[in-house]
Amino acid sequence: MSFTVHAPSSDCRYPYVDGLRCTDINLMMSRPSKRVDNAVVSNHEARKVVMSSNLIPRHLQGPFIRKKKLDERGQKLKFVRTLLIDNYDSYTYNIFQELSVINGVPPVVVKNDKWTLKDVYHYLYEENAFDNIVISPGPGSPTCSADIGICLQLLLECWDIPILGVCLGHQALGFVHGAKVVHASEPIHGRLSEIEHNGCRLFHDIPTGQNSGFKVVRYHSLIIDADSLPNELIPIAWTTSTDALSFLGTHKLDVIPDTSVDFLPTKGQFSCYDRVGRRKVLMGIMHSSRPHYGLQFHPESVATCYGRKIFKNFREITENYWQRLKPSFTNQTSFQFAAHMQMPNANKLMREGSGSMQLVNIGDDQLSKEASRSSQSVHDAENKSSFGMFNMVDLSHPNIGTKYLKLKWQKFDRLASEVGGARNIFYSFFGHHKAENTFWLDSSSTEKGRARFSFMGGKGGSLWKHVTFRLTDESDTTLKGGGYLTIEDAQGSTVEKFLEEGFLDFLKRELLLFRYDEEDYEGLPFEFLGGYIGYIGYNLKVECGVVSNRHKSRTPDACFFFADNFLAIDHCNGDVYIMSIHEGCTAPSWLEAMEQKLLTLEASVKRDTKEQTLKPLRSVSSKAGFLCDKSREDYIKDIEKCMEYIKDGESYELCLTTQLRKKIGDIDSLGLYLHLREKNPAPYAAWLNFSSENLSICCSSPERFLRLDKNGLLEAKPIKGTIARGTTLEEDEQLKLQLQYSEKDQAENLMIVDLLRNDLGRVCEPGSVHVPHLMDVESYSTVHTMVSTIRGKKRPDITAVDCVRAAFPGGSMTGAPKLRSMELLDSIEGSSRGIYSGSIGFFSYNQTFDLNIVIRTIVIHEGEASIGAGGAIVALSNSEDEYEEMILKTRAPAKAVMEFL
């Protein structure tokens, strides 16, 4: 039996349109208002105003008339060109990915404050560049002009363009026509609800009601008051009950409808009250005479069932609308516009065959030819909009300063186990002289395939250098990330210079200068071939979209070695590799010397752990432990402040952190690291010693931030959800199940998974971003954690540093939406996070990288040890529990310090 849905007539018919209805370009009068705590000081907050809810359209002077007659017949669209308005959300590019696949061409993404209404008219009605509009979710409220930007004007003026509003966009559709936006009875973020709908076209072939399989993810604190809906807005979807659901038991996503029942819903067939008389939540609306729709839930979420089907239905609504109203016009619009507007310099990329249009199967040679043509309108659009965040670089031609690198390497089968393992190798070769200027990316926990390789080395050959970067005074927001770079070379010479564009642009240019022969590393099973090893501090968020930093870091904002000589250890089979890169024909004499050292390293050098560890140079008599920057009471107050922001719709999740500190004097920091890795082994651990900065980093991180392999595959593995191990096997298993079934932890994890999908979606090929592992529970020596894996295929026009810039800082350390959340956290937290919450890892000269999240880490700087810790605050959080979780995360590193002292 076929599955059919009957839609109300109002969903199928729109009035015949001769020209555009004319209204005033100027938005309604507004009055200033503060909607958040006075403690929040940001450029974004400073320009917030509240709009009047009585929105009465006014008339423009002079109509905009369609260029083509609308009564000519024609074929359906071969592709659909969407203008995607981004309300500074962290899920917009999940919509982008879905629409890229469904529409046949990627949408054009424009921030809500980048275009004027005049720009919109030009591209919609003069260039005829778009077939529909999608308004993204976002933080805040549609009653605030800074939150909603141009979206209210679009909904008022563009009455003859199909529009779909998601979450904030849904609320905007209601608000602009006079409905009230109010607080929900409780904030719902990262939780699911079953949905019933009226069978309109947007829900065609989607089941409805309880146990139907139609479950959706919700991220909202505000809702449209259903009783305030004006006559022109029709409710089309509700929750089936007032209770939200957890993800567990909802693994079947985008399921096939149950066709065993002839389902024929009608507009009035469902009740707006649950069984006990409580008001259910309005989840969807549509305009009675305009092709405008709104959805309160998130169809783009990885856990929403039938999300892709909803977007397909919106495409069909768009096709049918234009087929009926202006069929010939749709076939003559400017196809190349959508292709060129995906990124800066797109015309050049299209001509050279490396643009985004190669990522979509258009299936029409003529259309592809049209896509390569440049037009003045495209150049104008590129100057007025922010379709991408990257300054694309021509990768095909050498640049001035190109370095031609050669790699030499040797492999020693199963040698690691014969000489005492990675620990003994590092200590024997690099542990002398306080291990100055040494590095060790240490996979000290390799079980279950979490990590396989370790890389270690010290001051190397002629290419070695130490790079240090410090941002300018963070109070000067006009500089936006510029800073001072210091480079020390192998001979000890130092050069200082100011980087106006910041560190990531410097690193990007450096990596693009390298030329190499891929045959040099054929047969190597790992990605790091030589290049930059070090860390990126949390404050480099100002180079990734954040306006400014409120707090200045005590440590450098980035520190890297350029490693030309190093060792790699394969923990899977114990193989040891010695690696050396050089320019030109210079013979790598280091290889011969290291080979001799390895061959003479006898098994007898294996000693007891305590014998390998140097004694502290100066003991600390005080037995006092670490002191927290925030008292218990203050931290709990901060948690409650976060929950207020969440209640007001400013954020879905806030990763609140603090620092613990202790004066430790001049100790053997390498010995401390060796002790830490023994007590708390981790797959993404690291040791870094920048001696000129009096800085050592002892990291036992279990979390990968982002990895790019040689095949262009990106992978992120965020952790959200942590619980202590049990003292018995039975208790341990119970605690593991408690974490797995925790509704709060599932919501935390789901929000960050959707955020990372968004971040990868900015730089990955359409349709390639996927989640092979969702909410797995992994066990470590002291904790169980909930881990997900997100992967995607990098676009060919994107560089390694572009990928990092799109996703840094890791979403598990910020919350969502990321930019607004970081603004709020900057106002709450009392000091800079510094290295904590940043990333440690490598950037190989062949454009691969692997970076962790800096957690479970001891930073030793100028005689002080600091440990950062925190947790995700969500609507379901309990203040006392959140404080205890923060303390739990400091337990292993703090205990290691106290034991070592």
TrEMBL record:
Molecular function terms from GO: 4-amino-4-deoxychorismate synthase activity
SUPFAM superfamilies: ADC synthase, Class I glutamine amidotransferase-like
Domain Anthranilate synthase component I N-terminal: 434-578
Domain Glutamine amidotransferase positions: 83-242, 251-314
NCBIfam families: pabB (TIGR00553)
Family to which the UniProt record says this protein belongs: In the C-terminal section; belongs to the anthranilate synthase component I family.
Name of the molecule in the record: aminodeoxychorismate synthase
Organism in which the protein naturally occurs: Trema orientale
Native organism taxonomy: Eukaryota, Viridiplantae, Streptophyta, Embryophyta, Tracheophyta
